[in-house]
Design goal:
Chain lengths: 227, 152
């Protein structure tokens, strides 16, 4: 009987020893991983001002008040939809990075060949947390990309807004295009001007009582994915 | 090992997702340019001649921003006479214009438009162009008036 008790005690001691060793082998180290993404966000800032010009001077030709030009920030349309229609946003684009931004709306009325309008005091600001690079494209009213026709050493960029093969507007090279490829760090901004002209040298393309509409889209890509 | 494997897979998925989802934001500028109109309308046509019996027939035709006015002068008995035709135009467009007028007739006769270029005519404003004709026998003068933007 005493021998039986000793055997039970020995087995129990062995089991405790094995269990203790096992517990050491099964110890777990836990790593907590948390990823907080930043955001890409750009917006227009400033106080857009439209100035009528002729021959590099302010005002209309001979000081007349014939046409008018206005610029304002307003909500016009879903800007991402327009950019997507034009194929400017790749399939990998994450729609959650878009937001509803106000747009710059420029309206010229009663225009004539030779009329010129300059919009200034406008900026693009990076209000997100990730550096962005800007891409600028011109779209017609059906959201097709228009390729400007550069002339005079690139100082004049004729555009054909109605697709009739005849260029009826000139977007000065200092406009928008200076933003192309610009990198903006968070809180940085870049100013630009818009100089529009109905070129007298292309007046055969400019019809009377006609409305010409086009869009300029500015896309802020995360800087390391700029196309 | 199992928890470490799970963490590794999770990190891989996160890396793939980060690479695939490109972030971009868009701003748009909408530009609308509405052009005005250049237009003129021949409001009145009057005439004076040296001889009361001289007949004058005036036929205006408009094409775009151009009026072509045919003026036939027929003095009595194939005699000579001089007439002046007064063409009063109105700027019916939306921007200031100038009117450019040319004239022609058969040789031996005279047909002169004055002024050949008007001053600026503002929208709804009027201006008169005089056409002087001197004929021996019947003759026809053709005057052509075209409106162009004042800044051209």
């Amino acid at each position: 009987m005493k021998k039986y008790q000793m055997s039970v005690l020995a087995v129990a001691t062995l089991l405790v020893a094995v269990a203790t060793a096992f517990a050491l082998w099964a110890d777990v180290l836990k790593i907590h991983l948390e990823v907080n993404t930043g955001n890409v966000d750009i917006e227009f800032t400033g106080d857009p001002r439209a100035i009528e010009m002729h021959d590099g001077l302010p005002g209309e030709y001979e000081g007349k008040d014939v046409a008018s030009c206005t610029a304002e920030f307003t909500e016009v349309q879903d800007e991402e939809a327009a950019a997507a229609d034009a194929g400017l946003l790749p399939p990998s684009w994450n729609p959650s990075s878009a937001n509803a931004d106000v747009e710059l709306k420029i309206v010229i009325t009663n225009a004539y060949p030779g009329y010129q309008c300059k919009i200034q005091d406008v900026n693009v600001k990076n209000v997100g947390t990730i550096p962005v690079k800007l891409l600028v494209k011109i779209l017609d009213q059906d959201h097709n990309v228009i390729r400007p026709e550069p002339h005079f050493g690139g100082f004049v960029s004729y555009i054909d807004t109605d697709g009739d093969g005849c260029t009826e507007l000139d977007v000065d090279s200092s406009s928008f295009f200076t933003l192309n490829g610009t990198q903006l760090h968070p809180d940085e901004s870049q100013s630009f001007t818009v100089v529009l002209r109905l070129p007298t040298e292309r007046q055969q393309c400019i019809a009377e009582q006609t409305t010409y509409t086009f869009y300029v889209v500015i896309i802020g890509y995360q800087w390391n994915e700029f196309p | 090992m199992k928890p470490l494997t799970t963490i590794a897979i999770a990190m891989l998925i996160t890396a793939i997702a980060t690479t695939a989802a490109l972030m971009a934001d868009t701003l748009t500028t909408k530009i609308t340019a509405k052009t005005g109109t250049i237009d003129l309308n021949l409001q009145t046509v009057t005439r004076t001649c040296g001889k009361v019996a001289t007949t004058v027939t005036i036929t205006p035709t408009k094409t775009g921003n151009t009026y072509t006015i045919q003026i036939n002068v027929n003095p009595p008995g194939a005699s000579s006479d001089s007439c002046t035709v007064y063409l009063t135009y109105k700027n019916t467009g939306t921007i200031p214009i100038k009117i450019y007028t040319t004239s022609s007739t058969s040789s031996g006769n005279t047909c002169t438009a004055t002024p050949t270029t008007t001053g600026q005519i503002h929208p709804r404003g009027t201006e008169t162009v005089n056409v002087y004709i001197s004929c021996t026998g019947s003759c026809t003068c053709t005057a052509t008036s075209t409106a162009k933007s004042w800044n051209q």
